[in-house]
Design goal:
This protein is an all-alpha fold. It contains 11 helices and no strands.
Amino acid sequence: MTGLILIALAGFGASFIDGALGMGFGVTSTTLLLAVGLSPALASASVHLAKLGTAAASGAAHARFGNVDWAGVRRIGLPGAVGAFAGATVLSNLSTKAAVPFTGTLLFLLGIYIVIRFVLGRAPRRKPGTPGNRLMIPLGLVGGFVDATGGGGWGPVTTPTLLADGRLSPARVVGTVNTAEFIVALAASLGFLVGLGTAGIDLGIVLALLIGGVIAAPFAAWLVRFLNPRILGVVVGCFILLLNARLILMALDAPAAAWWTTYAVLFTISALAISYVVRIVRRDREVPAGAAAAEGPESVHA
């Protein structure tokens, strides 16, 4: 019972992060499930089955608010489903000994990607329209494959890429990616069911993740108004790095000195990245306030 409560809390935290950033449910929840001892294939299968509910709810909400580009959903979701089914099949056929370092390394690299993406925080140039198949098909294939093999990664791979492309507004990027994620999660779930069967999948874990995620969704939507997504993104990325470094070091049977050195470096990098972003966010908040104060007397006379 205690384990299921912890998993529900993991689902709550992962859904909160996803609701605040538009990415991170799969990466965060899979990382936490691996940390409590699930095999990579079972962790990813559980996450994708739970995602069927969370992605459907998220997609419906975005559609209601007009945040979905349906042509984009079709162009990225269908190749994403192909990539996800292939990735689930590959992971299902890997031994646990081979899958743990593979998945841990993939999640570690996604953590690096998330940290860099939110540290840089560059705004894309807008050029309205729907991205074409030349971008969407390979992006969907890669995003779906990474999502299934890593237990998450659809959002971290696709959302920043579409934001950088600039043809969809940020709201429509998040809405389109989240809606297409239902198709990807469905294909990945089918792939795991084919590869693993149903005997090894614990529906209690799936329901715990789903319940935690559903409870977190409205809370995240309310609280995100008071949080800075750039700071939260860096914190989440650093958290993913620290947890998955443990899996890699264990798989390598690294000596104690390597553990101490690795975590010393990661904690230092995390502290520097977080402090840098906090300083940048504070500076950006102070500049408009200072500018408004300077223009105040002139606006009065005008």
